[in-house]
Amino acid sequence: MESPLMRTETATPLLCLQDQVIIITGGNGGLGRAIAFKFAEAGAHLLLAATNRDTLEETRQELELVGTKVLTVPTDVRKSLDINQLVRAIREHFGPVDILLNNAGISGPTKAVADITLEEWNHTLDVNVTGAFLASQAVLPLMIAQRYGNIINISFIGGKRGYPYRSACAASKWALIGFTQTLALEVGKHNIRVNAICPGPLKGDRIERVWKERARVGNIPWQ
């Protein structure tokens, strides 16, 4: 099995995270997986958390091919019990946590506001916002004690402007930016940085499904 790192042509990584310990939620696919390989290239030790055990294991095997230390913990970020188990696992295997990357997220329903169910709305905010809150809350005592840490929240360009038929996703990503700014103001005095990144659409199956559903709702060709 060939790792993406084995195809890297850059001799010296632009980013150096040698021996830093990083938690990546949603680290088994898409953006989270790509970030995991970049962090591994920079020398980090990784804990990958996601709900899908099979893809977690596949990603772990690929990362370990190049000598990266990787721990995988099946995790539902909506559940505080799962998050607490994750933090205990990383402390037992690696020690202090340097970086938390809150990447776990779902696209949510593609519907007009009038058609979204309360269950769909709550599920989207639970994963995209509450998950980041629970994970941040769990690592903060460790980071405050060591007087160092970095929390990175993956928001979305839809968290900075309106996004028709995607209100649950947009609302969750707006909320994540507000959470990020507020937490940064609270913990900056402990030398903890908190930032949000707002990427646009990423090529892959997920965005194609969203575009096709938006086209269906708007009665236009998806291309």
Write structural notes for this entry.
With 223 residues, the chain is of the alpha/beta class. The protein has one domain: NAD(P)-binding Rossmann-like Domain (Rossmann fold), CATH 3.40.50.720. The chain contains 6 helices and 6 strands, in the order βαβαβαβαβαβα. It has a 6-stranded parallel β-sheet, with helices on both faces. The two termini are 34 Å apart. Residues 1-11 have low confidence and may be disordered.
Q: Which superfamily, in CATH terms, is the homologous superfamily? A: NAD(P)-binding Rossmann-like Domain
CATH C-level class is Alpha Beta
Distance between the termini: 34 Å
Helix content estimate? 40-55%
Q: What is the CATH topology assignment?
A: Rossmann fold
Shape: globular
What gyration radius follows from the Cα positions, in whole Å?
Answer: 18 Å
Number of domains: 1
Separate helix tally: 6
Give the low-pLDDT segments: 1-11
